[in-house]
Write a structure and sequence with these properties.
This protein is of the alpha/beta class. It has a domain at 6-155 and 169-199 and 256-263: Rossmann fold (3-Layer(aba) Sandwich). The chain is 35% helix and 21% strand. A seven-stranded mixed β-sheet has the order 3-2-1-4-5-7-6, sandwiched between helices. Residues 224-229 and 282-290 have low confidence and may be disordered.
Length: 290
């Protein structure tokens, strides 16, 4: 496998970030809170939940607390992230389990879960259609997919710093809401509901923003779509521009958030969620860190 394979680059970036991820993931956590709030008006009681791209297990713990009788399985391709998640999970009688695997080939049997949760996973997936097809595959009839992603206005201030002449465009992974909606339908999901929100986060300085992006792994993972020379040039230009700013000057940064949920077709009216242990299958993705 090439050292610049998109999936490998992303997995390595987040593997390196695992030890300090919880210290620099405030935006991820805030969007995660807002995503779970979309479950409030839904009268669902899933027995088996899959948290894809679970990271250090924050959302998995929240899902287990929300649904007291459900089993929650967290899946992530970065093994060190799972080690952090397991360390935070009760050792005995826990309803949470963590498995190493990628969104393009989930280690879960067909029709196995009632709810698939994916907070900010899609921006790091090279292929949008493959993870959505996997979500539809593992969901039982009448199952629910709940996800968030990032729209094209995300970090627009950062792109202006990189290219003040206006030539910087949103790269792959920053999805238009309508593109995501069409992809959900193509994956065989029904009744897709889309919502966008703009979240403005104030950083104490541009250096603080840079620190959070690098330490969280997001900077390296986003650069998977460009060659290494272009990546180094962009990073150097960005740091030079940061030095032109006053150290204490606050910087407002935009995150365009897309929330979406959709359902798999029920086999009969009033289809109930499935019961019993979650059947796993062999995962084609590597089980250790890249």
């Amino acid at each position: 496998m090439s050292a610049f394979d998109p999936g490998l680059r992303t997995r390595r970036a987040f593997a390196r970030a695992a030890p300090c991820y919880d210290d620099v993931s405030r935006v991820y956590d805030e969007i995660g809170h807002r995503l779970l709030a979309h479950l409030d008006p839904m009268s669902v009681e899933p027995a088996r939940v899959l948290d894809v791209g679970c990271g250090t297990g924050t959302a998995a713990a929240r899902l287990a607390a929300r649904y007291r009788r459900c089993r929650v399985v967290g899946v992530d391709s970065a093994w060190p992230m799972l080690e952090v998640a397991r360390a935070k999970t009760p050792r005995f009688f826990s309803r949470q389990r963590f498995v190493c695997g990628g969104a393009e080939g989930l280690p879960v049997a067909d029709d196995a879960v009632d709810l698939v949760h994916a907070n900010l996973l899609l921006p790091w997936c090279p292929d949008l259609e493959r993870p959505l097809r996997e979500f539809a595959r593992v969901l039982a009839p009448g199952g629910l997919l709940l996800l968030s992603s990032l729209g094209p206005d995300t970090l627009v201030e950062l792109r202006r710093l990189l290219d003040p002449d206006g030539g910087a465009e949103a790269g792959p992974g920053l999805l238009d809401m309508h593109v995501l909606g069409d992809a959900l339908v193509s994956a065989g999901l029904l009744d897709a509901v889309m919502e966008t929100e703009r979240l403005t986060v104030q950083y104490g300085s541009a250096e603080r923003l840079m620190d959070d992006l690098v330490r969280s792994g997001a900077w390296s993972a986003r650069l998977r779509h460009v060659g290494p020379v272009r990546a180094r040039e962009s990073l150097s230009r960005l740091r030079r521009r940061y030095r032109l700013l006053r150290a204490a000057e606050p910087l407002d940064v935009t995150f365009e958030i897309i929330y979406a949920h959709a359902w798999t077709p029920p086999t009969s009216p009033g289809q109930r969620f499935v019961q019993g242990p979650l059947p796993l299958r062999r995962n084609p993705a590597p089980r250790g860190p890249g």
